[in-house]
Amino acid sequence: MRLVSIRHVQPGMKVGRTIFTEDGKVLLGVGMTLTDRLIQGLQRSGIDSLYIDDPRTADIVVEDVIRPETRQVAVETIEKTVKQITNSNKLARKISLKEMGLHFQQAFGSILDDLMQNRQIVMHLANISTHSPSLYHHSVNVAVLSTAVGMSLGYNRNQLMELGIGAMLHDIGKVELPAEMLKKTERWNQEEMEAAKQHCILGFNILRKQHDISLLSAHVCLQHHERLDGSGYPQGLKGKNIHEYAQIVGICDIYDSLTSPRPWRKRYMPQDALEYLLGSGGHLFEHRLINAFRSHIAIFPIGSSVVLNTGEVGVVCRVDPEYCHRPTVRILKDGRGNDVRASYDLDLKTNIKLFIVGFEDDQLFSLGGLSESKTT
What we know:
single chain; two-stranded antiparallel sheet; Hypothetical protein af1432; HD-GYP domain-containing protein; alpha+beta; five-stranded antiparallel sheet; 3 domains; HD/PDEase_dom; HD_GYP_dom; Molybdopterin biosynthesis moea protein, domain 2
C-alpha cells in the first residue's frame, strides 16, 4: 500500500487502511472501492490523505501499532466523557462521571496491551496517525507516542498507566471553553489564546476529583504546557518542578499537532517537526526525553511517497531504526516523471549519493518556519 494525497485519489482505487470518523466510528474499511461521492465525503471530513492498495506496492505493509478496534474504543471513551462533562443536568453529570477513571483504565489498558505485544513496531513508530484532525484521535495519538517513550525509559506498568491516562486526557479541559471557540475554523486570536490557556487548570480540576484517576495523571493535564525555562503556562514552572510525565506528553502533543492538519494550516513534514523539537532540547524540554522520543519516530514513514535528489519518485518500503533518514525506497517514476516499466528498490544506506529531498506532494505540507506559537 501507499499513502496518497486526497487530491490525487481517483475513483476505483481501494482503501488500504481503515479510515475513522472524528468520533471513532469506522468510515471506510480496508478494501472498499472509492467513488466520486466517497472521495468528496472524505474531503468534507477534513481527511487530507489516505492509504490505498497498489499492485506495485502490494508487499508494503503499514502495520497498525494498535488495533483499529482498540483505537475505536479509546476514541469513543473520550467522546463519551466529553458528553458527560458537558451534560447540563448536574446530577446526571455527577453520576455518569463516577466511573470515568475505570473506563479510562480499561480503554488505555487495551492500548498498553497492544503496544506490549507489538514491541518491534513500538521501537520505531512510523505510522500512528489516522489522518483525521479530530481532537479525540489526537488524544489517542499522544497517548501512544507518550507510552512508547515511557517504555523506552523503562517505566513499569503502573507508571505507563499513569502516563498514558494523563496523555489521553491532557486536553480534556478544552471542553469547558466557550463553544464558539471550539467550533471556530480560523486560528484563535490573542484574546482567545489567552482564554484557551485555562484548559490546563480546568482539566486538572475535573481529573483531581476522580478517585480512580491518579493525581499524577491529573498533573499531566495541568503541566503539559509548562517549559523548562519557565516560558510555559499556566504556572510558569521551571526545571524539575515540571513532572517528567508532563514533559513527555508536552513533546508528543507538539509533534502530533504539527504533523496533523488544522483548518487554518496544512500539516508540517515529520522532519520539520522533529527538527523543531531537537532545537528545543535544554530550554523547553530535557535533552534525554527528546532523544528518547526521537528514537521512536520515522521521519519518512513506510508507505509515504518521496522524491530523491535525482528526481526519481518512490514509496518508502523499509526503515532501519539506526538509519531512519536513509530508508529503502521502491522507485515508481524516473527522473523525468515517467512510470518505470518495473519498480525496483533502492537502499539509501548503500547508495550514498542518493538522498530524499521531500515528499511527492509538497502541497500537503506547510513549509514556513516553526515556532511554539504555531504548535497549537
